[in-house]
Amino acid sequence: MFIEAKNLSKNYGKQSAVQDLNFRLEQGQIVGFLGPNGAGKSTTLKMLLGLISPSTGSVLVDGKDPQEQEISLKKRIGYLAENNPLYPEMYVREFLAFIGNIHELSNLDKRIQEVIEWVGLEKEAHKKIQELSKGYQQRVGIALAILHDPKVLILDEPTSGLDPNQRDEIRHLIKSLQKDRIILFSSHILSEVEAICDRVLLIHQGKLVCDRPMKEIKDLEKFFKEKTS
Ligand SMILES: Nc1ncnc2c1ncn2[C@@H]1O[C@H](COP(=O)(O)OP(=O)(O)OP(=O)(O)O)[C@@H](O)[C@H]1O
């Protein structure tokens, strides 16, 4: 499986949000997608998911346009949105079952239990989502993203709102999912990107200003500032 952006651009009215991006993502890599506020990260992620269409250029998932094969593609992609939209009135298990049914998963109870343990929600799983702390709500979002065992994980700031211990746990979790998957995640926490990513895509004012292996970048914070100021 691969995801390819080819001359990808998006304008909102007269404003250009993303300009002429080119990159290719392969399985087995965790790729950090970085950039200052307003650089165009969420816009790019939404185009990769087929949620919004490019103004020009294209996204290819296994050589196909995600907008033309929306349902089959959704089965292969897990997405944690930046604002992590959840149903606050639902209980954790009820919510995961609701989503699992949409994905038509078999052995759903077993899978829900597995995912709940995986993201460390055992003690909170009997609660309504609105009763959970921000960090635990974030874990529900991650449980949701991985429930159907997708081959591609797109995570928009997965550790926002988490304390340092929780961040470590989620980091290990993401690492454990690396094999055979494409994982793309955006984060403003550069130490986390340094610890977890194999590769860094850096976007500034809608343009890709770096696509490099993490090991070639000595000090990511310094590098980020040099490229984006
Ligand atoms: N629906 C929209 N309509 C108009 N402009 C938009 C829309 N969504 C994003 N933009 C603009 O496009 C640019 C890129 O925004 P985007 O949300 O992709 O950036 P980002 O890198 O994800 O930022 P952040 O780190 O702050 O979340 C910004 O100037 C933003 O105001």
From TrEMBL:
The keyword Thylakoid does not apply. GO terms for molecular function: ATP binding; ATP hydrolysis activity. CDD domains: ABC_DR_subfamily_A. SMART domains: AAA. The keyword Lyase does not apply. Residues 3-229 form the ABC transporter domain. Keywords: ATP-binding, Nucleotide-binding, Transport. SUPFAM superfamilies: P-loop containing nucleoside triphosphate hydrolases. Belongs to the ABC transporter superfamily. This is ATP-binding cassette domain-containing protein. It comes from Aquirufa antheringensis.
